[in-house]
């Protein structure tokens, strides 16, 4: 295992409290009603955490093995919140390994009980329906969601049944007959909402063309939620919904209140016991209504910035998705195969939305209790147009109308924060990117790709810190592989672990079987200040030692002041008075210069060490300068040779360019704007649409085979219903005529696909011939 220290980081946004709730203004996005966030712990890497981790007791390592051969390659491993179950997901299969239910032990190898998931739904021959993503629900340790290529989101209950899903949502992002792009009906990934109002009951789903849809509300049966949060939502609905004069607002509010009261019956009980902190969700689903697939979420864009919004769109197809709640902001990050990260924020609150008159299929037991739910979730085609018209008409609206807009039943718009280009090499199949959240810092996430591991930190949060300037996110490469092929993923597993010391450890496993650990240290530990202290000491020394010898000593001794007496001129040296006077002045001059010499001696004695140190330092600097001069002289010849070589290469390139100008193809005309647009459409059709079309055909074929198999019960059993239950209303069972019609439609679709492929080959041939002319 390799232990690595991460690079320097920039600080996260300041921990200033967010502003209070207020109404939106015209030039600024509406303020989201969210409680003040707790100060986030900003992280910087350090090697000092190595000593902390080395002092902790290390448990005995053990290896968990399933009790049976899975028969497929595991591509995703996920552990639930109470560390009791492990999801082992492949491209077409899912198994659950129970950590504490051990079959046998052989030394450090532990055999654990393993159970398959949805073996009747997922094919056993690794053909047809693919598992796109599996993830545990953040508010339940026994529920996990599965998104498959047949555009179905299923929620399974580990404690009840692993074969039949507890809740099944058939996603219909495009109404039948209106689909123009196959990528718009192919889901890619999903992400659960976080702990904020209706976000905790929401599931965000990303499709291949980059469109984002929302399912709300989706609640696992028997899941515990904070009673305080449920009451906050209930009060919010009654405050902003029921008192409105708009009938649409009142209708949506009544539906939301009915769902809350049926799912959480404690809201109707006026209990004086305040010790209950959690509320358990009851199994409930409206009989005559189904959830609406809200979306696609459109982006807030002014009219004069319309062209700018179109030009800033990402290329390729969407490959990854993650949701993060940062203070008052709900951030959505989309990863594209072109190596770009699209960062958006919800500009409004998410609200529940139902399709009136579309019944839900329920599976109930003999006591009338709901066992499972299945519903078809259609999108609202009038959602986007209605939202645009409402936004344009409410530009000058007051606070009340802006508050009522939350309950109009429209999908929340997105506010574009930034587009981060990771500058990955372009490949034919696109890059494979995976997104992971930081467990301690919500405004930080990691992106793993074929070129390594990057860390992205957000510095601009429009609702949490509106006073901050719009600063682009910072990208720090944590690991670099130097691999130019980014189409294949670099990591087979990655997890960010937070411990009780406020540290984060990034643990990853490469496809070559190597394990690495990147340790991160929190800023709560003081940063070493040796450099500042040393620089301060040097300044103090320089200020105290102004010079080697004082100016008084350098100026010399002060001459004695002789009296201006004229009697001295009359004295002779041979006389007694002259000798006495001469002896007196010799004594005075001797005492004066002896005192000066003594001062000079003391001064030189005190500065002996300083002068010695200065001379040694000057000698070292002189030697360093000489070495630098020698190295520069040695490099000068190499630089001259490289310049001469570059000049020769430049001359050679000029000659080659002149020779290329003589070729026949040099005079060809560039493609026109229409031809360029047509070529880009062909490239998109070849890169994105064909893959999406093949995936859709494979999923439909697998679903048709599953429904065509003879079963003991009625056709409703294949849809997750009890054999004895008949549908109440709405869509009926698949008859033989409908089955034959579906088969013929699939055959026509296959023929159409072959014809399109032939036309595409002809067009490519014509384009190549035209380019060669």
TrEMBL record:
Q: Quote the biased-composition stretches of kind Pro residues, using this chain's numbering.
A: 10-21
User: Would the keyword rRNA processing be found if you checked this record's keyword annotation?
Assistant: no
The cellular component terms of Gene Ontology attached to this UniProt record, alphabetical and capped at eight, are: nuclear pore
What does the record list as coiled-coil region(s)? 746-773
Which residues fall in a compositionally biased region of kind Low complexity? 39-56
GO BP of this protein: mRNA export from nucleus; protein import into nucleus; ribosomal large subunit export from nucleus; ribosomal small subunit export from nucleus
Assigned keywords, A-Z: Coiled coil, mRNA transport, Nuclear pore complex, Nucleus, Protein transport, Translocation, Transport
Q: Which GO terms describe its molecular function?
A: structural constituent of nuclear pore
Q: Where is this region: Disordered?
A: 1-65
Primary residence: nucleus
What superkingdom does the record give? Eukaryota
Record localization: Nucleus, Nuclear pore complex
Question: What is the designated name of this protein?
Answer: Nuclear pore complex protein NUP88
- Organism from which the protein derives: Triticum turgidum subsp. durum
